[in-house]
Amino acid sequence: MDSHPYLLPEGVHAIPAHLLDLRPDADIDHDLLHPRPVVDEKNVWFFWDTGYAKMHPYTQRNIRAWHRRLSKQGWVVRVIDCAPSSPLNVANFLDISDPDVFPRAFSNGTLTGTYARQHTSDLVRWPLLLKYGGVYADVGLMQIGDLDRLWNETVGNPASPYEVLSYNCGAVEERSLANYFLVSRRNNPFFERCHRLLLQLWAADGGKTSTEGMHSSPLLKGVEMLGDENLSFEENGKFYGPDEARVMLTDYIIQGQAMSMVCGLVDEEDGWNGPQYFVDHVYGIDYMEGSQLINAMTAWNGPKAFELMSLPLPKEGEAESADQKQAREIVEACLQTSFGFKLAHGMIIRVLGETLGSLWRKHTGSDDVPGTYAHWLRHGTIYWCPDRLPATQEFKVIKPYRIGPLLRES
User: Which InterPro entries match (predicted)?
Assistant: First the structure.
């Protein structure tokens, strides 16, 4: 394994070697392709429709790091897929023909749209958590903080009030959980309702094959659309103003809208008080510091982030340049204060242009060049851990978005 003498930032400690799986990549890959059966709730679920072996190298490195960090603490990492004859095919874990688990478009393979692969991924995460429990994460999420410790202190601790762990994408008064990192035990009542609502959105109009138009469902009345009046972009010579862009973004992240509605729903017939549940039982980490710090520190300028992370560290005796200083501050801040880092892909590229994730994808191996800031960051995600755990935001009970049954139009 890597032996580069990177500086350990203040507030970060080295993980004892006996807690890490430091075997060669080939051995890690064998374990990932042949995971042991589910025996408890310490599961980390990922999804890539064509399977782990066909993932991009930089996301394979993400997954290996999760395994290296967590496997010796009893966690099993699985990359679920839709590949024929694969032992990790979703059909080996969930009943894909059950309409209470998947919409018809998933079951019969007719799911369409620009982001069909992302929405296929959306549809597997709640069923996996509801049946087996654990963590669902996007393959683009780099884990930094001590997940096992946070699990043991929150969701995995019967004495803790917390039942859901995620990032909250907004201020303390907002209810916008990030679907790229979801944690719960089996049969969680919040995710169960979120999943029922999402299935109902897919069932509209006789059964949808894409998320297009779901933003306007009466079942989501009261939840604001995503984005603001400044959201716009140009693509192939066509300008998309704020109204069009917000519709597209909201349809794209419709799973997030479903979560927001359940957070803000009071359903007295069902005994559900979402605003109170969120305060009492959701451990919501601030998403910007917790999982988007590189973007925050580069003003969401993907090419700039890529340029900084690709820089070599100063050699002995060399003065640190201004760019190297910025790159060092980014890496140190991530390793000291973040719980993860989400490499952005999908629709955000249409809106903001290239991201660090899309450029690592385009320039194969650029995230793993020894002596660079990107490699220093990767080194830290395997060997080190921040001393502190991220705090939950201090939520207060908000006014409900809607009062009435979950699946009845008001």
Answer: AfumC-like_glycosyl_Trfase, Nucleotide-diphossugar_trans
pTM comes to 0.96
Six-digit token string for 342: 């989400």
Residue at 6 is within a domain: no
Q: Which amino acid is at 35?
A: P
Asked whether residue 365 falls in the same domain as residue 299, the answer is yes
State the pairing for strand pair 141-143/177-184. unpaired
Answer yes or no: do 98 and 149 share one domain.
yes
Residues 319, 397, single domain; the answer is: no
DSSP type of residue 139: T
Q: Residue 196, Cα to own-chain centre: how many angstroms?
A: 21
Residues of the chain above pLDDT 90, percent:
88
Residue 229 lies in a domain: yes
| 253 and 358 co-located in one domain | no
Q: Which amino acid is at 30?
A: H
322-361 burial: b if 16+ Cβ within 10 Å, else e: eebebbbebbbbbbbbbbbbbbbbbbbebbeebbbbbbbb
Instruction: Look at residue 1 in the predicted model and tell me its pLDDT.
Output: 56
Residue 218 forms part of a structural domain: yes
Segments forming the whole domain that contains residue 158:
12-291+388-403
2 pLDDT band (50/70/90 cuts)?
low
Instruction: For residues 141 and 196, state if they share a domain.
Output: yes
Percent of the chain with pLDDT over 70: 99
pLDDT in tens, 47-74: 999 999 999 999 999 999 999 999 999 9
When the pLDDT of each residue in the chain is averaged and rounded to a whole number, the result is 95
Region 334-350 average pLDDT: 93
What's the number of domains the chain is made of?
A: 2
Give the position of tokens 């660079």: 372
C-alpha to C-alpha distances, 200 to 139, 197, 248, 255, nearest whole angstrom: 27, 5, 20, 12
Say if residues 171 and 287 touch (Cβ distance below 8 Å): no
Q: Are residues 379 and 392 in the same domain?
A: no
